[in-house]
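Lecture 7 notes: from sequence to structure.

We start with a single chain of 216 residues. Read the sequence below before looking at the structure.
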Amino acid sequence: MSATEIQELVNNAKELVSLPEISLKVNEIASDPNSTADDMAAVISQDPALVVRMLKIANSAYYGLSKEVETISRAVAILGTNKIRDLVLSTSASQAFEGIPNDLITMQDFWHHSLYCGLLAQILSKKSQKANSESIFIAGLLHDIGQLLMFNQLPEKSHEAILLLMEGSEELETFEAEQHVFGFDHTQVGAALIKSWKLAPVLEECVEFHHSPQNA
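Now the structure, written as tokens:
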């Protein structure tokens, strides 16, 4: 499939996968040097689901706090505005694809995988000191976002790719099975989606080449 056809797939789904207003507000606050943790908390508090998710993450073993975090203001102070922005963006992106059949993927599994990839990527980035760890974190969070768009827009062919992956005689990677069935894969679709959201070019590059970093 050509780049034009992939872009058409993204354009057809734009209304379904546009980022909500709260995500845009959070991004504005994170980018404003004069903003405060209270400003961020006020926006997050408008979405109960986001409040619950931020509190869960702040109370996770990763941060190792001895006292439970009970308020969103405290969670923002612990996580920081940039991390909150990244988590809200990832959550918003995932919520945009709700309704995908569970036999393709469960959003909980997708979220866990994305979060772990983001955290691991950030740890490696900090150790190597070769990249902005915040950008790398969000790249890890969104690296498979193209899969959700394919599941959402092309469920029957997605089933085909999954069956090929599970039952094929060859040992295929996910992206290879997608290429067999679709003629393209989730890395290309994800990169086009990231571009349509007008996110940083480095995120687009990370998503597009996460299975072939040598081509980046």
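The two ends are 20 Å apart (CA to CA). Keep this in mind for problem set 3.
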